[in-house]
TrEMBL record:
Enzyme class: transferase
Cofactor(s) listed in the protein's UniProt record: pyridoxal 5'-phosphate
Region of interest: Disordered: 972-992, 1030-1059
Source organism: Brassica rapa subsp. trilocularis
Keyword Glycosyltransferase in record: yes
Pfam family, one: Phosphorylase
Low complexity bias (residue ranges): 1032-1046
Reported function: Allosteric enzyme that catalyzes the rate-limiting step in glycogen catabolism, the phosphorolytic cleavage of glycogen to produce glucose-1-phosphate, and plays a central role in maintaining cellular and organismal glucose homeostasis.
Gene for this chain: A02g511730.1_BraROA
Catalytic activities: [(1->4)-alpha-D-glucosyl](n) + phosphate = [(1->4)-alpha-D-glucosyl](n-1) + alpha-D-glucose 1-phosphate
Record has Glycosyltransferase as a keyword: yes
EC number, UniProt record: 2.4.1.1
Protein name: Alpha-1,4 glucan phosphorylase
Keywords associated with the record: Carbohydrate metabolism, Glycosyltransferase, Pyridoxal phosphate, Transferase
C-alpha cells in the first residue's frame, strides 16, 4: 500500500492513502495577534498509528484522533474549536474506528461468500441515539437531544467512556457534542424507523446484510409552528455535510429513462436512447452492538455526466437550458415523496423508485459476479447467494429490473430469469391503506420504462394463464371476477392468447344527440324543455352515453405478490387481513407464500442508549446486561414488580427523564411544565385515522369540567397532566393541518389560564423527529395509540363510485369524506375526480381550472361551451322562469354539450359553488370561470352514473361543495329512484331540504338576478359516491380498490402494526388504545390489566357506519357538549366549523364522522377516568409500568430479524474472527 508524507511543523507523518483510520495526537499552542489576543487550538502532531486495523480504545488516543480531524479533515476555519467543529471532528474520529470493522466485515464476506440479504427501502431514519453519558452514568438533563449516529456508534463500539473522557480533556462533554448532530432527513415515519431498527439488528446478530436507499438532499420538510398553524420549510441536514457518509466515486451505475427497445445483432432486446443519469454510492457504516460486524447502508445520489452540460448554450446566454440535464438528474434525489399531482411529479416519483431498484440491483449483481471468483458465473446460484427484501411496494420495480438485467445483459432465457427472480425477491406489505397498493399509469410507465412494461406484460400474461388453468372457463363470471381482482394490468385487454376465454356481451352503439332547437320560443319554461326532451328520447328508446376509455394501470402490489416468493404482514391481525381480504385470491392460489412477521424495535437504541437510567435499573435487578442482546430476559422483572425498592428506583428514573423533557419544552415552546404531573404523550404523524382529534377533544372536555368546578373540587377530581403532542401534517392535508392549529389554540388558552395552573397543560412540540422521540419516550407515563380499527373499504355492488381528491401527500393521508371540502379548488391545489361505473367506464377531471378546456376534451365536442356554461348556466339554476332571452340561448347551447356528458339537460346548483368563492374571498366577477368545473362535476357524478346504476341501490349522500355549516343540510338531501319505474329516470325532482339549522343562501348581486330559491335540485336516479382515503403515496394510482360482490368488504385495521407503541411499552409507559395493529399483541404480552382499552372493535365498524348512515346514531350528550364549547369561541377567533363539521351529519363528504370520534368519545372519557384513578395509586401504577417493560420482549427487532432470516431470506449468521 502506498503512503505519502504530510509535513506538520518539524515532523513527517506517514499516512496510508486509502485508510481513514489513522490516529494522531497533538499539543495546544497559543498565538498572539497584534490587535487582540485569541486562544485557539493549533495542531502539532506527535505520532500517528500506521496500522489501519488498530482500534483506539483509550481516551488519550481518542483525544489525539479528534484533534487530528479538526485540522486535517476540516470543515470550519482554524481560529475556533467550538461545538459544531468538535462534533464533526469527533464523528470523523468515530468513523475511523468504524471503518476498521467495516473494512474487516466487507473483506470477510468477500472471502467466505455467504448468502447476503439486501433490504431496499425508500426510507431510513437513523434513530435512537444514546444518552451521551450512558456508560459513565452522569445524570444531568441536557438542553438538546442526544445525536443519533454519534452516541449510537460509540455505544455499540463500547467507547462511550473513552470518548467522554477525551472530550472532557478538550473542554467539552460528549452530551453537548452529540447534541450538535442533525436528524438525517432520510425518512418520514414508521417505515423508515423500522428499516433503521432492522439494520441495527442485522449488524448486532451478525447477519450478512446491506441496506439500500436514496440520499435525499432536502428530506420531507421541517415543521414550523406559527400563530396560523403549521408551516413547512426545506430540511437542511446536509448543509454542513454528513460526517458519517463516504462517497464512493468509483461505485456508480447508469440509470436510463425513456428511449426505445430494439433487437440487437445477437437477438437480444436492447433498451437504447432516452435520458441517462448516474447513480453514485454514498456509504454509511452501521455498527453492531459489541460485535465486530459493521454492515453498510448504501444511499444513491443522482447526477448527470459533465458532458451533458451544454457549454455552447451557456456561453450564448441560455444558462437554464445549458444546465437542464444536470438539474433533471439531480432533482431525483432532492425531496422525499415529491408532490405528484402533476404529470411531472408522477414521473419524478417513478424515477425515484426505479433509481433505487436499478442502481441497487446493478450493484448486487456486480458483487455476485465479483464473489464468483472470476470463473464462469452460474446464475442458478444467484438466489443461493442473494435475498432481496422489498420494504413496501416502492421497490417493486426490482422484479422487472432484475429480469431485464438477467435477460438483456446476461443472456438468460425468460424461464431461467423468472425462476431466479422469483426465488430472490420477497415483499413486505405494511398497510391495507391504498397507498401500500400503489398503481402507476401504464401510459406513463410505457414512456418512462418501455422495456419494463414489456416484461410486466409478459408476467401478466403468464398470470392470466395460471388463473385460467386454476378456475377454468366453465364459469365465465367467476373467471372474470378473478381476472379483474388478480391481474397486474388493470383495464387492459386480455392477452391475445386468452381473448376468447370470456365472451363479451354485445353493446349497442351510442347514438348522437340532437342539439336543442335554437328556434324554440325563448319564453318557454326550461324545465318543460327538459321534460319534452326526456320523453322524446324515452319514446325513441335511445339514451346517449359518453363512456371515456378507462385508464390503464399497473398494480404494483399485485406485481410484488406474483413476483416474490414470500409476502408478509407486520402484525398478527394485519397479516390475517392481508390473507383474508387484501390478497385473498392470491392466498387461495399460493397459500404457502403468505407469512406474518410482527414488527419490532431494537432495545439497544430504545432502552439501553436513550434511557440509561432505566437501563441501569434493569441490569441491576436482573443481575446481567444480557437483556440488551436477549430481550427475553426482560421478563425476569415480573418477579420484582411488587418490590418497593424497585418501584422507588423506577419512579426516580422516570422523574429524571421527565426533567429532561421539561427543559426541552421550555426551549422549544417557552412553556414551563410541572415534572410531577402525569406526562400523557401522543407522537405520531397527524392523520385523522390516528385520531389526535379525539385526544384533544377529550382534553377540551376535561378543561370544561375543570372550569365548572371550584379549585378544591378540581384538585380532588383530576390528576395533574401535561398532554404532549408531536407530529407532522403533510403540507397539503388540510384537515390534518386544521387539527394542528386546533391543538395549538387549545394549548394557548389552557396554558395561560391562571385558574387551571399546573393542573393541565397542552404542549405541541414542533418539528417532531427522532431526537425529540428519544427524550419524550423515556419520560412518558401514558401514551395514546387510539387509531380506529376500521373497515377497509365501504364499497357497493358493481356500480360503486370511488371519488378521489388527490393531494400532495408523501406517505398520502386524507380523510374519506373530507377530500372535496378540503381541496378548496381551484387555487390551492390540484384535483382529480374519478367515477367508476358498472360498465367499466371512467370519468376523469384533472387539474387545474385554467386547463378546463383540456379537462373537458374527452366529454364534449367543442370548447365554446366553457364560456357559455360559466356565464349563463347559473341563471336557469337560480330561477328558470326569470331567465332572460340571452340567458336562455346560452343555456340551450350549454344543454347540447351537457347532454353529451350526461344524457340529459340538467339543472346544476351553481350557487353552491359561490360559497367556495366567498370562503376564498374572491370577487363574484371571478365566478364565471371558477364555477365551471364544480358544475360539470355535479353533472358527471349525478347523471352520468344514473345511466348504469341499478335501480334499488341507495344513496350515500351528496356532493357537498362549499360551506358545510351554512349549506350542509341542503346538500345532504337523500336521493331515491323514481317511484313505479323499472329503470332509472332522468326527470328532475325538487327536494325541500331541512333548513332549520339556519342555512343561508348567498345572494348573487352583480349577476343581475336574485338569489336562488332555498331548495336543492337533484336527479331522481340513485347514485352512490365514495371518497377514497389515503391518496397520494402515488396519486398516479388513484388508489381504487376492486368492488366485491357483497355489500361490504371485511373489516381491517388502519394501523398495520405501529412501532412507537412498542418503544413506549419498553420504556415502562402504559398505553391507552384500541385493538388495532400491534396493540392487540402488546395487550396480550403485558396483561389486559396493564393496558387501558376503549372503543369500538373492528368487527363492529360496519354496523356502526350503517347505523350512522340510517340516521340511527344518537351522539352522547358529552360529545355534543364539547362541540358546543369549541364553537363558543373560548379558544380564539379561529373558525373551527370545518373541523367540527366533519364529525356531524349522517352522510356526505367531509361529514358523518368517518373515524367514529363521536361514537368512541364517551368510552374514551370513561377510560381516562380510569387512568386518573390508577395514577393516584402510585404503587399500582408503577407495578403496571414495570410489567409493561417486562412484557415487551416479544417486540425486539432481533426476534423479527431472526424470523426473516430463517423463514424468508434463508441466511445464516456470520461472525467475524
Amino acid at each position: 500500500m502506498d503512503t505519502m508524507r504530510i509535513s506538520a511543523g518539524a515532523e513527517k507523518i506517514p499516512v496510508k492513502c486509502n485508510s481513514m483510520s489513522s490516529l494522531v495526537t497533538r499539543r495546544w499552542r497559543t498565538k498572539t495577534f497584534p490587535a487582540r489576543i485569541r486562544t485557539w487550538r493549533l495542531l502539532s502532531v506527535k505520532s500517528i498509528s500506521t496500522n489501519p486495523k488498530t482500534l483506539v480504545t483509550d481516551s488519550e488516543q481518542v483525544a489525539s484522533s479528534i484533534k487530528h480531524h479538526s485540522e486535517f479533515t476540516p470543515l470550519f476555519s482554524p481560529e475556533k474549536f467550538e461545538l459544531p467543529k468538535a462534533f464533526f471532528a469527533t464523528a470523523q474520529s468515530v468513523r475511523d474506528a468504524l471503518i476498521v470493522n467495516w473494512n474487516a466485515t466487507y473483506e470477510y464476506y468477500n472471502r467466505v461468500n455467504p448468502k447476503q440479504a439486501y433490504y431496499l427501502s425508500m426510507e431510513f431514519l437513523q434513530e435512537a441515539a444514546s444518552d451521551a453519558a450512558s456508560e459513565r452514568r452522569v445524570l444531568r438533563p441536557p438542553i438538546k437531544p442526544a445525536g443519533r449516529a454519534l452516541s449510537n456508534a460509540v455505544g455499540n463500539l463500547g467507547l462511550t467512556g473513552a470518548y467522554g473522557d477525551a472530550l472532557k480533556s478538550l473542554g467539552f462533554d460528549l452530551e453537548s457534542v452529540a447534541g450538535q448532530e442533525p436528524d438525517p432527513a432520510l425518512g418520514n415515519g414508521g417505515l423508515g424507523r423500522l428499516a433503521s431498527c432492522f439494520l441495527d439488528s442485522m449488524a448486532t446478530l451478525n447477519y450478512p446484510a446491506w441496506g439500500y436507499g436514496l440520499r435525499y438532499k432536502y428530506g420531507l420538510f421541517k415543521q414550523i409552528i406559527t400563530k396560523d398553524g403549521q408551516e413547512e420549510a426545506a430540511e437542511d441536514w446536509l448543509e454542513l455535510s454528513n460526517p458519517w457518509e463516504i462517497v464512493r466515486n468509483d461505485v456508480s451505475y447508469p440509470v436510463k429513462f425513456y428511449g426505445k427497445v430494439v433487437f440487437g445483432s445477437d437477438g437480444r432486446k436492447r433498451w437504447i436512447g432516452g435520458e441517462d443519469v448516474v447513480a453514485v454510492a454514498y456509504d454509511v457504516p452501521i455498527p453492531g452492538y459489541k460485535t465486530k460486524t459493521t454492515i453498510n447502508l448504501r444511499l444513491w445520489s443522482t447526477k448527470a455526466p459533465s458532458g451533458d452540460f451544454d457549454l455552447s448554450s451557456y456561453n450564448s446566454g441560455k444558462h437554464t437550458e445549458a444546465a437542464e440535464a444536470l438539474f433533471n438528474a439531480e432533482k431525483i434525489c432532492y425531496v422525499l415523496y415529491p408532490g405528484d399531482e402533476s404529470n411531472e411529479g408522477k414521473a419524478l416519483r417513478l424515477k425515484q423508485q426505479y433509481t433505487l431498484c436499478s442502481a441497487s440491483l446493478q450493484d448486487i449483481v456486480a458483487r455476485f459476479e465479483t464473489r464468483s471468483g472470476g470463473r464462469s458465473v452460474n446464475w442458478e446460484e444467484f438466489p443461493e447467494k442473494v435475498a432481496v427484501q422489498m420494504n413496501d411496494t416502492h421497490p417493486t420495480l426490482c422484479i422487472p429490473e432484475l429480469m431485464r438485467i438477467l435477460m438483456d445483459l446476461k443472456g438468460l432465457s425468460w424461464e431461467d430469469a423468472w425462476r431466479i427472480t422469483h426465488r430472490t425477491v420477497a415483499y413486505t406489505n405494511h398497510t391495507v391503506l391504498p397507498e401500500a397498493l400503489e398503481k402507476w399509469s401504464l401510459e406513463l410507465m410505457e414512456k418512462l420504462l418501455p422495456r419494463h412494461v414489456e416484461i410486466i406484460e409478459k408476467i401478466d400474461e403468464e398470470l392470466v394463464s395460471t388463473i385460467v388453468s386454476e378456475y377454468g372457463t366453465q364459469n365465465p363470471d367467476l373467471l372474470k371476477e378473478k381476472l379483474k381482482a388478480m391481474r397486474i394490468l388493470e383495464n387492459v385487454e386480455l392477452p391475445s392468447a386468452f381473448a376468447d376465454v370470456i365472451v363479451k356481451p354485445e353493446s349497442k352503439p351510442a347514438i348522437a344527440e340532437k342539439t336543442v332547437d335554437q328556434t324554440k320560443d325563448s319564453k318557454e319554461d326550461a324545465q318543460t324543455v327538459v321534460k319534452k326532451e326526456v320523453e322524446e328520447e324515452e319514446t325513441a328508446g335511445v339514451i346517449a352515453e359518453v363512456i371515456p376509455e378507462p385508464p390503464k394501470m399497473v398494480r404494483m402490489a399485485n406485481l410484488a405478490v406474483v413476483g416474490g416468493h414470500a409476502v408478509n404482514g407486520v402484525a398478527e391481525i394485519h397479516s390475517e387481513i392481508v390473507k383474508t381480504d387484501v390478497f385473498n385470491d392470491f392466498v387461495k392460489l399460493w397459500p404457502d407464500k403468505f407469512q406474518n412477521k410482527t414488527n419490532g424495535v431494537t432495545p439497544r437504541r430504545w432502552i439501553r442508549f436513550c434511557n440509561p437510567y432505566l437501563s441501569d435499573i434493569i441490569t441491576n435487578w436482573i443481575g446481567t446486561e444480557d437483556w440488551v442482546l436477549n430481550a427475553e430476559k426482560l421478563a425476569e422483572l415480573r418477579k420484582f414488580a411488587d418490590d418497593e425498592d424497585l418501584q422507588s428506583e423506577w419512579r426516580a428514573a422516570k422523574k429524571k427523564n421527565k426533567l429532561k423533557v421539561v427543559s426541552l419544552i421550555k426551549e422549544r415552546t417557552g412553556y414551563t411544565v410541572n415534572p410531577d404531573a402525569m406526562f400523557d404523550i401522543q407522537i405520531k404523524r397527524i392523520h385523522e385515522y390516528k385520531r389526535q382529534l379525539l385526544n384533544i377533544l377529550g382534553i377540551v372536555y376535561r378543561y370544561k369540567k375543570m372550569k365548572e368546578m371550584s379549585a378544591s373540587e378540581r384538585k380532588k377530581a383530576f390528576v395533574p397532566r401535561v398532554c404532549i403532542f408531536g407530529g407532522k401534517a403533510f403540507a397539503t392535508y388540510v384537515q390534518a393541518k386544521r387539527i394542528v392549529k386546533f391543538i395549538t389554540d387549545v394549548g394557548s388558552t389552557i396554558n395561560h389560564d391562571p385558574e387551571i395552573g399546573d393542573l393541565l397543560k397542552v404542549i405541541f412540540v414542533p418539528d417532531y423527529n427522532v431526537s425529540v422521540a428519544e427524550l419524550l419516550i423515556p419520560a412518558s407515563e401514558l401514551s395514546q395509540h387510539i387509531s380506529l380499527s376500521l373497515s377497509h373499504r365501504h364499497v357497493w355492488c358493481s356500480g360503486w363510485i370511488p371519488l378521489a381528491g388527490t393531494l400532495d401527500l408523501p406517505r398520502g393521508d386524507i380523510d374519506p369524506g373530507s377530500a372535496l371540502a378540503d381541496l378548496e379548488f381551484p387555487f390551492c391545489r390540484s384535483v382529480i375526480v374519478e367515477a367508476v361505473m358498472a360498465r367499466g367506464g371512467w370519468t376523469m377531471l384533472a387539474p387545474p381550472v385554467l386547463h378546463l378546456v383540456w379537462l373537458l376534451k374527452p366529454f364534449v365536442c367543442g370548447v365554446e361551451c366553457v364560456s357559455l356554461l360559466g356565464v349563463g348556466a347559473w341563471c336557469l339554476v337560480s330561477n328558470p322562469s326569470r331567465v332572460s332571452a340571452q340567458g336562455r340561448r346560452w343555456w340551450r347551447s350549454v344543454g347540447a354539450y351537457t347532454k353529451l356528458l350526461a344524457g340529459r339537460v340538467v339543472r346544476v346548483s351553481a350557487w353552491s359553488c359561490v360559497c367556495v368563492l366567498r370562503r376564498l374571498q374572491l370577487p363574484l366577477s371571478s365566478m364565471a370561470e371558477l364555477v365551471v368545473p364544480l358544475m360539470m362535476l355535479s353533472v358527471l357524478l349525478s347523471h352520468q352514473q344514473g345511466v348504469v346504476l341499478k335501480r334499488n341501490e341507495t344513496v350515500l349522500g351528496s356532493l357537498v361543495l362549499g360551506s358545510r355549516r351554512r349549506l350542509g343540510p341542503v346538500f345532504e338531501s337523500s336521493w331515491s329512484p323514481s317511484a313505479g319505474t323499472e329503470d332509472p329516470k332522468f326527470g328532475l325532482s325538487s327536494l325541500q331540504p331541512d333548513l332549520s339549522g339556519g342555512s343561508e343562501l348567498p345572494d348573487l348581486h352583480g349577476f343581475g338576478d336574485p338569489a336562488p330559491p332555498q331548495s336543492a335540485v337533484r336527479a331522481s336516479c340513485p347514485v352512490k359516491i365514495q371518497v377514497l382515503g389515503k391518496l397520494s403515496r402515488s396519486s398516479s394510482s388513484d388508489d381504487v380498490t376492486r368492488s366485491p360482490t357483497s355489500e361490504e368488504t371485511s373489516t381491517a385495521g388502519m394501523e398495520a402494526s405501529g412501532t412507537s407503541n412498542m418503544k413506549f411499552s419498553m420504556n415502562g409507559c402504559i398505553l391507552i388504545g384500541t385493538l388495532d395493529g400491534a396493540n392487540v399483541e402488546i395487550r396480550e404480552e403485558v396483561g389486559e390489566e396493564n393496558f387501558f382499552l376503549f372503543g369500538a372493535k373492528a368487527d363492529e365498524i360496519v354496523s356502526l357506519r350503517k347505523e350512522r348512515a340510517e340516521g340511527k346514531f344518537v351522539p352522547d350528550p358529552s360529545f355534543e357538549e364539547v362541540k358546543q364549547f369549541v364553537r363558543s369561541g373560548v379558544f380564539g377567533s379561529n373558525n373551527y366549523d370545518e373541523l367540527i363539521g366533519s364529525l356531524e351529519g349522517n352522510e356526505g363528504f367531509g361529514r358523518a364522522d368517518y373515524f367514529l370520534v363521536g361514537k368512541d368519545f364517551p368510552s374514551y372519557v370513561e377510560c381516562q377516568e380510569r387512568v386518573d384513578k390508577a395514577y393516584r395509586d402510585q404503587k399500582r401504577w408503577t407495578r403496571m409500568s414495570i410489567l409493561n417493560t417486562a412484557g415487551s420482549s416479544k417486540f425486539s427487532s432481533d426476534r423479527t430479524i431472526h424470523e426473516y432470516a430463517k423463514d424468508i431470506w434463508n441466511i445464516k449468521q456470520v461472525e467475524l474472527p
